[in-house]
């Protein structure tokens, strides 16, 4: 609990809260204490020496002080003024100041701002170039040692925020500079191009390549002109002093502002829900700049969120509606296209009935657009056959949570994951699929001693970092999870008080655990009993546990049961309803949670109300102004069943919005044949995707940066995004398209802004009762459930569970083997998943040359043991054949996979891995068992180089350290504490 306090700053009393960093405390009062190296997210680094103040007559770096009652600070003391001036002089000795032609002179360069604030009459120490060349090897950013002030913010961000642990500074070197892996070129290091270092750099030493030559009136000049201009100004400065030059640079910064636009948006890649400002000039996306205000990510990004936005201006974008005639597409007007779509959908409904149509909403479009998709399906067509891509990934997790605790979403927030004593990752390659959440876990482990347990058949980065890593056989996770639950009961580690007070069916569940002995678990999973006991003791004795899982659990023939088993384990140990506890199914797409929340589910209205519930139907009918019988009480078909129904000539028409179903659904050949059978097929997308190529009408939609709306991230956090750019060509926002389509189908809803759509949903769905655009303004966010007064719920289940009696339920389970297993012919198992750099079918990331340079082709990972047995080396081509089809790929020999399990990234190829996957699925939720594929492997007489470039970050060697070693700088015999002058300020 914070307490109020009053401090004195230069004799003026200032009130606030105790424990706040002094710089932030003063900033809240409109008082600036110049500091170049301080950033709230990084804490006091003490490297720039520009924030000296006097406290009780002693010089202290202001960044180290926190507010407390009676603190008396003087920035006006002569020795403090002199010390700050000396600190700035030393920075300018290391940084060549040429602001008016610099791309970074946009108001947020802290070196420039410090010069303006302190306004030195001269530059005491002359700048001299360093004996280091610019590093331009990375496709996304450049490091210029001549501009580097050695503040170490990049090092701190890399080591202790991102925790990729690539950067360091050797202050003892004759000519210190920032080092990647101890001195490698950036693109030949372990750098994952997350952009943390670029984000925190206070000047232009680290800068996005998209900024060069594009941010100001003079920045586009070639260096052949810039260099003489800089030299001339430097010479002039010696005669007239620095202040006139500073004034000109201020004019330049102001000159730029009208053409620079900074817009808050939310990332459209994974489910972390990173928000940031996007800087643009005309249609040029200059950079992505995260901020401490961003609720999910703070200053963090990953390579895709920071740099993979080339698709927005891609010449492959669809910019006009297309209609297929005589086997070819022709361009059409919006009126013609929408009129055709409306007429054909209604004709199919009237001829074959509502069940003959299916709708797939987008997990990348907004909540409002998901809402309209299901509204058209339910209200206009009369079918509940509406779904989204969660059917392919997270529906099993949602089902497991519905069975046990009541809500199909994360139990808490990223902050809960950070503060847990133990984090358990199961079937989640978090560092590559949810990098920002992985960073939080890595930081908690490194800096605060959090214990990390990883259970996964693939040894990815998080497994390498784990305090305990268990490698189970594929598809056996229900067994070890249930065995751990039994162990908790048998060894007095179950939370008996929590179970008695808050959980039903404890005795029946405990009885169901009879088969799950440690011996049985070892036999099935391949995990030694001693290791299982180690995991049980670590989890059972922890005061708080968060368990995260993803598609490594859900994409199996019994993923719903395994998800249930994981939630059961959390209930047995009392790990729900308290800070730092709970189950966290990691959502893959940016709005796969929101698409489900807002009704793109075959069995649920928005807010998770069953379509078979007559009371819920009556309320939705009343909210929509129709008779209840207008809305069907029959559950619809999900994605997977829609495609099968199309193949069986039962589904006659489909509308797919922003989903690459032709690539993402299992057994690709059957999917394509099903699409070809449809009487009418309409696709709404940004690109002529593989799915769109089967369509009769293609409607050109906009990316999120060209429209307004809201998303829900994996935390259940609703965030607002704003239009960064105007729609490209004649493309339109999905909500506009759906509104216009509904009007042509006889339902003119009259929406002119997405806020009206959200307001309608909030007025009907209790889960979103208090959600409004006003409450989501700027960086504000809300986590559902949201009460009518706007009170949201960051942590679920603190008082009761959303069930009839307010109690959770332990759900008994039986072990069932996977639906597909190896045999004498198909003797290997094939795993699959995402890579950090790419996204899904690469429609978006494939437009980025920088991304393609990191990894641009498919490959198959083979274990060293299997490689030796089969005569395979990295670069050997192999044919992998399932019971459905074959693919030919180059091999990558790696210890990430073990024994007789292979791995293929899902992103590449005309058909991709789904040419191999089958139609066996989870019988509870119909999620295809993508991870259960038995294959055989043939070695081909073909050799190429490594399918991953030698410079790929996976071949780098990290250099972990504690962050900025400023003590080494101070300990150097050449160092003099300001205000004393420095003999060689370039080193210090």
Would you summarize the structure shown here?
This protein is of the alpha/beta class and 988 residues long. Helix content is 31%, strand content 17%. The radius of gyration is 29 Å and the shape is globular.
Give the secondary structure arrangement, pairings included.
Layout: E1 4-9, E2 12-17, H1 22-27, E3 52-55, E4 58-61, E5 72-74, H2 78-94, H3 110-118, E6 141-143, H4 153-161, E7 167-169, E8 178-180, H5 196-200, E9 206-208, H6 223-240, H7 242-256, E10 261-266, E11 275-281, E12 284-289, H8 303-307, E13 322-325, E14 328-331, H9 334-352, E15 357-360, H10 367-381, E16 386-387, H11 395-404, H12 414-419, E17 422-426, H13 430-433, H14 435-448, E18 451-455, H15 461-465, E19 468-470, H16 477-490, H17 496-502, E20 503-504, H18 506-512, H19 518-525, H20 529-541, E21 545-549, H21 551-554, H22 559-572, E22 582-585, H23 592-597, E23 604-605, E24 609-610, H24 614-624, H25 639-647, E25 653-657, H26 661-664, H27 668-677, E26 680-685, E27 697-700, E28 709-712, E29 717-721, H28 734-744, H29 754-764, E30 781-783, E31 808-809, E32 828-833, H30 849-854, E33 860-862, H31 864-870, E34 876-881, E35 886-893, E36 901-905, E37 933-943, H32 966-971
Low-confidence stretches: none
Distance between the termini: 40 Å
What share of the residues does DSSP label as strand, in percent? 15-25%
Helices, by number, come to 32
């Amino acid at each position: 609990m914070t307490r109020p306090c009053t401090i004195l700053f230069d004799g003026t009393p200032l009130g606030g809260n105790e424990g706040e960093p002094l710089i932030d405390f003063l900033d809240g009062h409109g008082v600036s204490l110049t500091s170049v190296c301080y950033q709230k997210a990084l804490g006091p680094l003490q490297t720039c020496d520009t924030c000296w103040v006097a406290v009780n007559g002693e010089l202290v770096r202001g960044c180290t002080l926190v507010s407390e009652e009676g603190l008396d600070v003087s920035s006006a003391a002569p020795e403090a003024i002199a010390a700050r001036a000396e600190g700035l002089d030393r920075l300018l000795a290391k940084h060549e100041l040429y602001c008016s032609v610099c791309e970074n002179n946009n108001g947020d360069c802290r070196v420039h701002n410090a010069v303006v604030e302190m306004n030195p009459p001269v530059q005491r120490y002359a700048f001299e170039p360093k004996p280091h060349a610019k590093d331009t090897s990375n496709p996304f950013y450049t490091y210029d040692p001549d501009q580097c002030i050695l503040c170490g913010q990049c090092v701190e961000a890399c080591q202790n925020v991102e925790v990729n642990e690539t950067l360091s500074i050797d202050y003892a070197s004759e000519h210190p500079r920032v080092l990647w892996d101890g001195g490698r070129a950036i693109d030949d290091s372990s750098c994952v191009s997350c952009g943390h270092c670029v984000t925190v750099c206070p000047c232009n030493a680290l800068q996005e390549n998209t900024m060069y030559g594009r941010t100001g009136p003079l920045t586009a000049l070639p260096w052949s002109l810039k260099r003489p201009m800089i030299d001339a100004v430097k010479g002039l400065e010696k005669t007239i002093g620095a202040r006139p030059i500073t004034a000109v640079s201020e004019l330049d910064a102001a000159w730029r502002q009208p053409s620079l636009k900074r817009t808050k948006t939310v990332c459209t890649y994974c489910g972390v829900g990173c928000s940031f400002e996007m800087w643009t000039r005309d249609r040029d996306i200059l950079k992505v700049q995260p901020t401490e205000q961003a609720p999910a990510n703070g200053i963090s990004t990953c390579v895709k969120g920071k740099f993979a936005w080339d698709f927005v201006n891609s010449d492959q974008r669809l910019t006009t509606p297309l209609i297929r005639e005589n086997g070819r597409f022709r361009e059409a007007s919006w009126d013609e296209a929408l009129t055709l779509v409306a007429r054909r959908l209604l004709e199919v409904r009237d001829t074959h009935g509502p069940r003959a149509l299916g709708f797939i909403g987008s997990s990348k479009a907004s909540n409002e657009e998901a809402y309209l998709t299901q509204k058209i399906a339910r209200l206009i067509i009369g079918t509940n056959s509406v779904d989204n891509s969660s059917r392919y990934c997270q529906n099993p997790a949602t089902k497991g949570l519905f069975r046990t605790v009541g809500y199909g979403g994360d139990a808490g927030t990223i902050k809960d994951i950070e503060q847990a004593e133990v984090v358990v990752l199961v079937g989640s390659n978090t560092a590559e699929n949810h990098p920002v959440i992985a960073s939080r876990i890595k930081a908690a482990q490194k800096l605060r001693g959090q214990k990390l347990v990883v259970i996964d058949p693939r040894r990815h980065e998080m497994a390498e970092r784990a305090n305990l890593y268990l490698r189970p056989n594929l598809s056996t996770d229900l067994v070890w999870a249930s065995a751990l639950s039994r162990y908790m009961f048998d060894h007095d580690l179950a939370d008996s008080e929590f179970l008695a007070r808050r959980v039903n069916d404890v005795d029946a569940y405990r009885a169901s655990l009879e088969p799950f002995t440690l011996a049985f678990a070892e036999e099935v999973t391949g995990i030694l009993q001693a290791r299982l006991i180690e995991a049980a003791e670590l989890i059972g004795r922890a005061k708080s546990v968060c368990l995260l899982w993803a598609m490594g659990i859900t994409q199996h023939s019994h993923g719903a049961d395994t998800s249930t088993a994981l939630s059961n384990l959390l209930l047995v140990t009392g790990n729900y309803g308290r800070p730092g506890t709970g189950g966290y199914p990691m959502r893959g797409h940016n709005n796969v949670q929101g698409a489900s929340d807002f009704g793109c589910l075959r069995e649920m209205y928005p807010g998770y109300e069953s379509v078979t519930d007559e009371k819920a139907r009556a309320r939705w009918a009343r909210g929509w102004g129709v008779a209840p019988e207008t809305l069907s009480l029959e559950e619809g078909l999900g994605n997977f069943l829609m495609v099968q129904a199309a193949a069986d000539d039962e589904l006659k028409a489909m509308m797919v919005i922003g989903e690459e179903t032709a690539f993402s659904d299992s057994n690709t050949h059957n999917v394509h044949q099903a699409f070809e059978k449809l009487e009418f097929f309409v696709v709404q997308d940004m690109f002529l995707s593989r799915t769109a190529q089967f369509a009769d009408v293609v409607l050109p939609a906009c990316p999120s940066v060209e429209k307004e709306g809201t998303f829900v991230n994996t935390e259940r956090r609703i965030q607002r995004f704003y239009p960064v750019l105007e729609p490209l060509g004649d493309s339109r926002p999905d909500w506009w398209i759906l509104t216009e389509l509904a009007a042509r189908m006889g339902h003119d809803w009259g929406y002119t802004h997405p806020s009206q759509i959200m307001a309608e949903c909030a007025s009907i769905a209790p889960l979103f009762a208090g959600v409004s655009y006003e409450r989501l303004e700027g960086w504000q966010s809300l986590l559902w459930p949201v009460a009518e007064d706007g009170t949201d719920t960051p942590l679920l289940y603190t008082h009761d569970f959303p069930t009839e009696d307010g109690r959770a339920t332990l759900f008994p389970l039986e072990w069932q083997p996977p639906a597909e297993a190896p045999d004498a012919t198909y003797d290997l198992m094939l795993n699959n998943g995402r890579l950090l750099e790419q996204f899904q079918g690469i429609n978006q990331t494939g437009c980025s040359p920088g991304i393609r340079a990191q990894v641009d082709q498919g490959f198959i990972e083979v274990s060293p043991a299997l490689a030796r047995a089969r005569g395979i080396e990295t670069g050997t081509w192999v044919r992998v054949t399932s019971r459905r089809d074959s693919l030919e790929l180059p091999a990558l020999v790696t210890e990430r996979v073990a024994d007789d399990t292979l791995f293929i990234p899902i992103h590449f190829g005309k058909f991709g891995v789904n040419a191999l996957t089958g139609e066996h699925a989870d019988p509870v939720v119909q999620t295809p068992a993508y991870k259960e594929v038995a294959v055989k492997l043939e070695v081909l007489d073909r050799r190429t180089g490594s399918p991953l470039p030698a410079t790929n970050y996976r071949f780098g060697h990290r250099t972990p350290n504690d962050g900025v070693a400023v003590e080494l700088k101070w300990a150097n015999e050449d160092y003099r504490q300001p205000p004393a002058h420095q003999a060689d300020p370039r080193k210090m």
